[in-house]
1-acylglycerol-3-phosphate O-acyltransferase 5 (Sarcophilus harrisii), 336 residues
Amino acid sequence: MLLSLVLHTYSMRYVLPAAVMLGTAPTYILAWLGWRLFSFFVPGARIYQEVDDRFYTIYQSMVLFFFENYTGVQIILYGDLPKHKENIIYLSNHQCTVDWIIADILAIRQNALGHVRYVLKNGLKWLPLYGWYFSQMYLVIFPEGTRYNPELTKVISASQIYAAEQGLAVLKHVLTPRIKATYVAFDCMKNYLDAIYDVTVAYEGTVDQTGKRKEAPSMAEFLCKECPKVHIHIDRIDKKDVPEEQLSMRRWLHDRFEIKDKLLIEFYDSPDSQRRNKFPGKCINSKLSLKKTLPSLLFLGGLTASMLMTESGRKLYVKTWIYGTVIGCLLVSIKV
């Protein structure tokens, strides 16, 4: 019984972070709506955008407090390490729900967290309160279209068969990428882009005792500190080196994923045990300072606590959850 209690307590380590991240949602939405209404009286779209990005930075910095500082995970960076803020499209392999956090992990190190935008699967646009807000964002792309899960052998097999039928290289540790989102994003934003970041992510501890790759950690598992290290390899590709014609871009994108696959084969399957669990080349252990995350946690936590201390505040809090979710779903359904 004692063992069961210990295991239950350990598994509940994600409850506090989840409660804070979700619990501050109405506060964040109300603050954003307040600014949105006030911005109608402020001249210039640039001021609105700067403050809107700042609001987003505050919330995402709080999220990173839990995913980095709270978990104590080590972030190991390889390749073309970002040195300054750029306008980019972020292309990554997709394994789990933590993947979108990885984009934030890189962005905060460039002081660009407020500018991160996402291409989401349709189902994620129905998230309470945040779904509509996230559905406006279009920069981070996972070209595989769905998560790579080594336990879903039918999905992997179908992807490999399709690649073979199309005369493309068959991939082992990633799925065959889809071109549509990447092509549309690049075509629409090429005049504003500086580069594409081709990012390959590997979660340490995702190999079983037999050496077989297993499923990447869920958000709950990650927050329970079950992933000791995240390895992130970055290739910076100047936009002039990306083909603009769709068929050529399709081949280029598959070639990029073939490079990812080779990196992951080295990480998971290298016959040399000294070369496993890391990517080739030099790396740095990048630690995120509490100065970048703790103030956001205290700010949003304090505002939420202040709201909940009064009866009128509690009523507003609950109404924001209810009506915000309903209105958000209606807006998404109208767009669909």
